[in-house]
Amino acid sequence: MKRTPFYSILKKPLVAGFITFALLLFLTQYITFQKYYINENNQKREVTNQVNLIKEKLQSLIMFSYSATKSLAYIVEKNGIPEDFDDIAVELLNRSKYFDVVELVDRQGFITHVYPLKNNDVIGFNIIDSKEASSGALATIKRNDFFIAGPVNLKQGGVGMVSRQPIIIDSEFAGFSAVVTKLSTFFKDLNIDTSNNNKQYIYQLSRVNQKTGEEDYFLDNDVSGYKAYAVPIEMTFGEWKLYVIPTKHDFNTAIIFAIVGFLLTLLSSFGVWYFAGRSERIHKLINIELKKQKSQLIKVHETSRKQIKLSESNLNKAQRIAKVGSWELCLETNKLTWSKQMFRIFKKNPKHFRVSHQAMLDVIHPEDRDFVSKTYSDSIINKVPYRITYRLKLENNQIKYIDEQCETIFDENQLPKISFGIIQDITARIKSEEGLKKSELLYRSLTSNAPVAIFNVNHKGECTYVNEHWIKLSGLSYADAMGQGWLEAFHPEDKKRIIDEWEEAMSSNLKFKTDLRFKDNTGKITFLTVKATKILDEENNIFGYIGIASDITERINNEKELLKYKNNLEELVNVRTVELNDSKNALLNLLEDLNFQSLELEKEKAKAQSADLMKSAFLATMSHELRTPMNSIIGFTGILLKELAGPLNEEQKKQIKMVKNSGEHLLGLINDILDISKIEAGKLKVSYNNFDYLASLENTINFLQPQASAKGITILPQISTLDIVLNSDEVRVEQILLNLMSNAIKFSKKGTITVKVDINDNKVVTQVIDQGIGIHKDDINKLFVPFTQLEGGLDRHHEGTGLGLSISKNLIKKLGGTISVESTLGEGSNFTFSLPLMPSGSK
Predict the structure, then answer these.
(1) pLDDT(32) > 80
(2) The pLDDT value given to residue 818
(3) Please, what is the end-to-end C-alpha distance for the chain in angstroms?
(4) CA-CA distance, 190 to 233, in Å (whole number)?
(5) Phi, psi of 422 (to 5 degrees)
(6) 731 near 696, Cβ under 8 Å?
(7) DSSP code of 820?
(8) HEC per residue, 92-131
(9) Residue 680: pLDDT band with limits 50, 70, 90
């Protein structure tokens, strides 16, 4: 290919060098200009980055301060000053590194709660009366909204910013929730040196006087010479400005670059003769510098993003602890957003549930849905926030109670822009209140039917409740007794004394006890004995007092009568004393006669005992002689009834059964007579052997069951121990059981006979309890007398000889046991006997 003349000219070193010089000179000077422009922009960007960084930190501080004070104010508005204030304050301080102190201020401006207390001795300090702090406090009250005041000289030392949120209870101002951020803490986080040692920037903080517009500076730095370079950051939620002032403009390296570029141009144009294509190095250097700056910007952005994400995490944690969720509705786009706690409260899965205004309404209980919608609409129309309680109807028909607060923000044209809402799950509180109401109703029901007067008084001495019996005794109505009205029930002569005793008992923390009188409007006087004791709440603080008053009028009247009788008795004693003195000699003569008669009685007693022994011996002999023919009669009638000697008609069977029954009855009578005779003669023998006591009891019950069933009576054994081995006379023990249970059946018309068996102190204790006719208390001493029946005469309804209980008592005594009886006439009797498991002296 043929080369052109132009190419040949370019090939000349001088031309190439000149062209290279021209091109490089233009290029280097152009780059110098760009470098100059980049350096200027970099310096401005550094200042802008510093300002933006401080703005982000300030916005984070505002957000954290608003969240912390709003949460604390909500807790106080909802539940009052929390008992765990310190725990909540620790949570708030841990949530943000900017906070140094958490405070609560009452409606008068006094600081009532502070955490931490160390180095913060400000409790009792009145911020409204303070010239330094009143400006921000009054501004907060005037705004009736969140406000950051400062910088102020803190009472505990140093300069700081105070974020306050007004506490509104029942639509009235009740104080502030506040957090304090010391400037040293804030500047430390920004790595800002507020002294003059920082050569790159000067910082200054000022507070704007709202009346004069003048600024009061709080840092020692003098910025008067840098006003032209100041970049102020003004706060919308506060009253202060922060200045970031570059102290000097660095020498623009582009000038050096221009000189170097010129020299480089010379060298490059010279080097063109030797080298080619070396100019790319300059472009590479530029690209490296640009990449470095880009990397720095990305790092700053990532750090800010992490800080915002951490702030959101802390906010979600605080909402989870307080069971509070938040929502935000953009009215321009109709987009609704929920916090994480909202999904927990509504029990929705964030991955599957699509949040929308209609979806939120669908979860609300159908009966409350229109009410919630109307309340929200009225809030927007009237431009006022609202607070309501309603129900959610969740899956499986679970009901939750919700407390919601909502406020809508309007733009400059007074059009609704954004609605913010806070929701708290109050189901546990509602259920607790319902339980408390039920307990109160139960208390009122019990006290209303109590046979004594009951009253409640609060810690101020005002009556809050009286029951119906109190109203009946006092003659006052329920309404009249409330407050101080209950004192009108007291007798006028007793009132001052009672009030003094009450105040003394309450002040000395003692129980109140006294006797007093009620005087009603009819003049009726009732004597009462009154007791009252304090009622404590969960913190052992006195909540009030509860008292009872018992009517003792009858006792007082009886005491008066006794006193009257006592006085009469003393007079009577004096008269009788005189008469007794006159009769002294007559009594002495009477004693002599009694001594003589006593000797005669002793002689008669000896004769009676001898006759009694002869009677017992006779009865024993005759009973033995009678048993032999009676056994024959019973045996032969039994053979006849079995028809071994031939068939019998019905009338013959009936007559023979009557003979057999009469014989058996007579034999039982003979046996009883024989036993009582042996007992009285001291000849009764017992033999001790181990046997199963419960088996003997079962045999006795089975033997008597037909008699009991015939009368519609149930025998119910109650055994506490299933294995009882008794060392005693088995035959005599069964005889005792048979006598006691036969009597229970005989003297009962219906009901249940209960046989209880227990082991107590190595003794078998047996109770035979019936629901029969019972025994009069005057007749109990006659029960164990031989041949004695409580129902005497020819018209008695129950047969028997009156020997069964006497024999049983003597047998029990012979076996080392005891027997007792308890009875109520018309209700039944309880015969209780005990026998030792092992006789005395046995191993």
Answers:
(1) no
(2) 92
(3) 145
(4) 15
(5) -120, 130
(6) no
(7) E
(8) HHHHCCCCCEEEEEECCCEEEEEECCCCCCCCCCECCCCC
(9) low
Structural contact between residues 488 and 480, judged by C-beta atoms closer than 8 angstroms: yes
**Sign for the pseudo-dihedral over CA of 201, 203, 208, 212:** negative
Q: How far apart are CA 104 and CA 84, in angstroms?
A: 13
Residue 763's CB is within 10 A of a number of other CB atoms, namely: 18
Percent of the chain with pLDDT over 90: 8
What's the rounded Cα separation, in Å, for the pair 62 and 165? 12
pLDDT band at 276 (very low <50, low <70, confident <90, very high): very low
Kindly indicate the confidence band of residue 758, based on its pLDDT and cuts at 50, 70 and 90: very high
Helix, strand, coil shares, percent, the chain, to 5: 50, 25, 25
- According to DSSP, the β-strands at 399-410 and 240-246 are unpaired
Which residue matches tokens 């923390």?
Answer: 509
pLDDT beyond 50 at 794: no
Which DSSP string do the residues of 745-758 spell out, in sequence order? HHT-SSEEEEEEEE
Cα separations (Å) of 582 from 416, 569, 585?
A: 117, 20, 7
Radius of gyration for the chain, computed over Cα atoms and rounded to the nearest angstrom: 55
Of 193, 291, 278, the residue nearest 244 (C-alpha): 193
Mean pLDDT of 393-416: 89
Sign of the dihedral defined by the CA atoms of residues 635, 639, 641, 646, in that order:
negative
- Crossing angle of helices 804-814 and 650-681, in 10° steps, is 40
Report the candidate in 89, 100, 115, 106 with the shortest Cα–Cα distance to residue 141.
106
pLDDT tens-digit map of 284-329: 667 787 787 777 778 777 776 776 566 566 555 655 565 688 898 9
Rounded to an integer, what distance in angstroms lies between the CA atom of residue 107 and that of residue 189? 34
Reported as half-sphere exposure (CB side, CA atoms, 13 A), residue 216 has a value of: 13
Considering the entire predicted model, what is its pTM?
Answer: 0.30
Contact 30, 279 (CB under 8 A): no
Question: How far is it, in rounded angstroms, from Cα 703 to Cα 697?
Answer: 10
* Cα 492 to Cα 229, 334, 384, distances in angstroms: 87, 73, 56
Closest CA to 290 of 65, 67, 38: 38
Mean pLDDT across 795-815: 71
Q: In the block, which residue shows the tokens 């059964």?
A: 657
Reply yes or no on whether the pLDDT at 7 is more than 60.
no
Handedness of CA 114, 117, 119, 121 (dihedral sign): positive
Question: CA 500, CA 490: separation in Å to the nearest integer?
Answer: 13
For the segment 774-791, the average pLDDT, to the nearest whole number, is 71
Q: Residue 220 burial (CB < 10 Å; 0-12/13-18/19+)?
A: exposed
Instruction: From residue 114, give the alpha-carbon distance in Å to each of 72, 101, 393.
Output: 13, 7, 41
| Whole-number Å distance between alpha carbons of 34 and 722 | 112
Quote the CA–CA distance of 292 and 496 in Å, as a whole number. Answer: 92
Burial of 260 (0-12, 13-18, 19+ CB in 10 A): middle
Burial label for 47, CB within 10 Å (0-12, 13-18, 19+), is middle
* Residue labelled with tokens 């006052």: 476
Q: Where in 319-452 does DSSP place strands (E)?
A: 324-330, 335-338, 386-393, 399-410, 416-425
* Contact (CB, 8 A) for 545 and 456: yes
In this structure, which amino acid lies at residue 181?
T
